[in-house]
Amino acid sequence: MRAADERFWAKVIKGPAPGDCWFWVGAISDDGYGRFTLNKNGTTRAVRPHRFAYYLATGVWLDDMPSLMHGCDEPTCVHATVDPSSHLMPGTHRENMLDRIKKMRHSNGTGLRYWGVGRAAQADRSRRIREELLAHGWDSERIVAIRFNHDPDTPTLF
Ligand SMILES: [Zn+2]
Fold it and tell me: For a tag on the chain, would you pick the N or C end, based on fewer CB atoms within 10 A?
């Protein structure tokens, strides 16, 4: 698995602060989640990067892993650790859904719009974050602009 995790981390850009997201900048699927290909014993398998990151952090293999929730609501975030700073935590599918509903209900309109948009928009958003990171590296303002749907090239009016 050595080569796989080197390949994996080569496609991740981490924010500078301990609580920042670690964004996957490799392939992104049409649902807005990342895609990472594992080659094992001559077979290939496409996996979710956040699940692979969780495996690297915890040692829990993909087939034995529960569904994971993104505390940060970033589908391409792979910030998995074994302590409470982890952006990924296990949850059942039902918990996942309830969590989404709860967040939408409490959303103040500045964030978490992600869950209200369609698949194509989710994929587009994930890809824009990736392009931004690849073009400019980690620039918090620009990332926040995309995350919260502000246009970074439009000046604010105050
Ligand atoms: Zn995150």
Answer: C
Residue 156 lies in a domain: no
Q: Give dist(CA 65, CA 60) in Å, integer.
A: 6
Centre of ligand 1 from the C-alpha of residue 42, in Å: 32
> 128, exposed or middle or buried, with CB in 10 Å at 0-12, 13-18, 19+?
middle
Distance 20 CA to ligand 1 centre (A): 6
Alpha carbon of 52 to ligand 1 centroid (Å) = 14
Q: Is the pLDDT of residue 21 over 80?
A: yes
For residues 113 and 37, the model is more confident at 37
Q: pLDDT of 92-147, one tens digit each?
A: 766 766 776 666 655 544 444 445 567 888 899 999 999 999 999 998 888 888 88
* 78: in domain: yes
Q: Residue 102: which domain range?
A: 2-147
Q: Encoding tokens for residue 40?
A: 């094992």
Supply the mean pLDDT for the chain.
Answer: 85
The total domain count for the chain is 1
Is the residue at 92 inside a domain?
yes
